[in-house]
User: Which sequence fits this backbone?
């Protein structure tokens, strides 16, 4: 909540230059909504990490599947049935994010108990670990989001829309290896150094095999599926999609290596 308030305050102070140079053609109300949801989104990340650490993968998959189905259903209802446009879509996304976080709070609270007291030793430990990890996280976020700002600067909101679809479709190459990568995290963290290294190498091989297979399928089907599912207006997304697929495959390998450094070696930075 503190971080969310600080983000909103900084945005309010620097709103003019942000929209002049970074968020061109983007309504300030959209930015306020996105920043306001930061604490809720962060809480869900914590809940999902708890489920992953406790190896409650069926429960985590249930929430993830429910979120994906809800996202598609709400998008259809707001855009096609009620025709509420982008405002309605963003409002539905906010409500769904709140519901996801509330569901995570209910499940974890019911099974393990929830307290709002601050544990000083735990706070110190996670703060020191988090500060080191935050350096790597900042680099990852810049790398993962900078392309949107670059595209926005050169091609505007329409270019961002086309590029976002390309990244979304290319990202489906991670569909099969992602559960494998997530399931390996607690085992990599709890095993001995030698066993964790061997497991990491095994996961990399399987991840590469699965993502290459999915990537080849996307490479062949994307030129037909994108116009069919999204319309002829998104035909310019096809070439960027094909270019991004190999990068998506390699990113999955880097995630496995990152998990070894973070959870086994305790070096998130």
Assistant:
């Amino acid at each position: 909540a503190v971080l969310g308030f600080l983000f909103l305050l900084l945005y309010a102070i620097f709103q003019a230059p942000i929209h002049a140079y970074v968020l061109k053609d983007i309504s300030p109300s959209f930015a306020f909504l996105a920043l306001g949801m930061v604490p809720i989104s962060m809480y869900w990340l914590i809940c999902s990490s708890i489920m992953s650490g406790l190896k409650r993968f069926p429960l985590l998959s249930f929430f993830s599947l429910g979120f994906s189905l809800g996202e598609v259903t709400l998008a259809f209802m707001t855009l096609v049935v009620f025709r509420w446009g982008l405002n309605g879509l963003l409002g539905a996304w906010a409500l769904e994010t709140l519901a996801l976080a509330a569901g995570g709070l209910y499940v974890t609270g019911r099974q393990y108990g929830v307290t709002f007291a601050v544990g000083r030793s735990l706070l110190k430990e996670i703060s020191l670990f988090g500060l080191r990890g935050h350096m790597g996280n900042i680099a990852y976020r810049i790398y993962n989001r900078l392309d949107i700002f670059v595209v926005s600067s050169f091609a505007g909101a329409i270019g961002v829309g086309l590029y976002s679809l390309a990244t979304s479709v290319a990202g489906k190459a991670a569909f099969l290896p992602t559960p494998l990568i997530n399931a390996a995290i607690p085992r990599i963290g709890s095993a001995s150094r030698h066993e964790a290294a061997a497991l990491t190498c095994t996961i990399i091989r399987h991840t590469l095999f699965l993502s290459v297979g999915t990537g080849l399928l996307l490479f062949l089907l994307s030129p037909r599926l994108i116009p069919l599912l999204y319309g002829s207006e998104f035909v310019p997304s096809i070439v960027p999609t094909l270019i991004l697929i190999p990068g998506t495959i390699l990113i999955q390998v880097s995630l496995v290596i990152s998990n070894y450094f973070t959870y086994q070696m305790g070096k998130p930075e």
About this structure: DSSP finds ten helices and no strands in the chain. The radius of gyration is 20 Å. The mean pLDDT is 88. The first helix runs from residue 2 to 13.
